[in-house]
């Protein structure tokens, strides 16, 4: 079982201690929105195929709140040099430590799909109850689309949302916030 490390201890260790690697297991979009300077990104779903890319030696596992990092740490086995950042990057940001941001702060596509699909199902169900029972077919259509996306990993709504103006990258410039290391892809 991996140990834990809190944000103040990690911050101090990064500044004054021996080198320590950080592996952020969030999606690439989450990582781009904001990550700890110097962290490496291998999304959770890619870990098993990219074991050769996992740094050796002291390693801190990071995600947004800590749960995914705990799961991946379990996959990596019982290693004494492995720690999980308590509270994840959320705790790091709340402590106002430096964060590198490579993209404008926006919701991930997955979160946008959940919001839109949920709203459509809720509204269609209410319309079916109060106006016309045929509205239930709209909710069924969204449910079928989500099932198809889950089975095939092809999400029509996600592809549509990716083309919306708020999801289109306006610039290739790297933006940083309180960055100690401006290399967002390290």
The first-level CATH class of the largest domain is given as: Alpha Beta
Strand order of the largest sheet: 1-5-4-2-3
Give the distance, in angstroms, between the N- and C-terminal Cα atoms: 27 Å
Number of domains: 2
Mean pLDDT: 85
Order of helices and strands: EHEHEEHEHHHH
Taking pLDDT < 50 over at least 5 consecutive residues as the criterion, the unreliable ranges are 172-186
CATH superfamily of the largest domain: Rhodanese-like domain
Name its key features.
single chain; 186 residues; alpha/beta; Oxidized Rhodanese, domain 1; 2 domains; 5-stranded parallel sheet; 7 helices; elongated
What does this structure look like?
It is built from 7 helices and 5 strands. The protein has 186 residues and is α/β, with parallel strands linked by helices. It folds into 2 domains: 92 residues, Rhodanese-like domain (Oxidized Rhodanese, domain 1); 59 residues, no CATH class. Helix 5 packs across helix 7. The longest helix is centred in the middle third of the chain and has 22 residues. The chain is elongated. The chain starts with a strand and ends in a 24-residue tail after the last helix. The C terminus is likely disordered.
List the helices and strands and how they pair.
Blueprint: E1 3-5, H1 7-16, E2 21-24, H2 28-33, E3 40-41, E4 59-62, H3 67-76, E5 82-85, H4 88-94, H5 109-130, H6 136-152, H7 156-162
Parallel strand pairs: 1-5, 2-3, 2-4, 4-5
Helix pairs in contact: 5-6, 5-7
Brief digest:
This protein is of the alpha/beta class and 186 residues long. 42% of the residues lie in helices and 9% in strands. It has helices at 7-16, 28-33, 67-76, 88-94, 109-130, 136-152, 156-162, and strands at 3-5, 21-24, 40-41, 59-62, 82-85.
């Amino acid at each position: 079982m991996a140990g834990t490390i809190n944000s103040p201890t990690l911050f101090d260790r990064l500044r004054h201690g021996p080198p320590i690697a950080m592996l952020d297991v969030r999606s690439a979009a989450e990582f781009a929105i904001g990550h700890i300077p110097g962290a490496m990104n291998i999304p959770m779903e890619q870990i098993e195929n990219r074991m050769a890319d996992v740094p050796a030696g002291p390693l801190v596992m990071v995600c947004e709140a800590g749960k995914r990092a705990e799961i991946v740490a379990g996959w990596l086995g019982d290693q004494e040099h492995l720690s999980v950042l308590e509270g994840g990057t959320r705790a790091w940001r709340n402590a106002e430590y430096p964060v590198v941001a490579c993209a404008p702060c926006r919701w991930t596509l997955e979160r946008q799909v959940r919001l839109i699909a949920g709203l459509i199902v809720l509204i269609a169900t209410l319309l079916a109850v109060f106006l016309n029972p045929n509205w239930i077919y709209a909710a069924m259509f969204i449910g079928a689309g989500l099932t198809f996306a889950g089975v095939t990993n092809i999400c029509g709504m996600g592809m549509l949302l990716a083309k919306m103006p708020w999801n289109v990258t306006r610039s290739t410039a790297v933006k940083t916030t309180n960055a100690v290391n401006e290399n967002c892809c390290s």
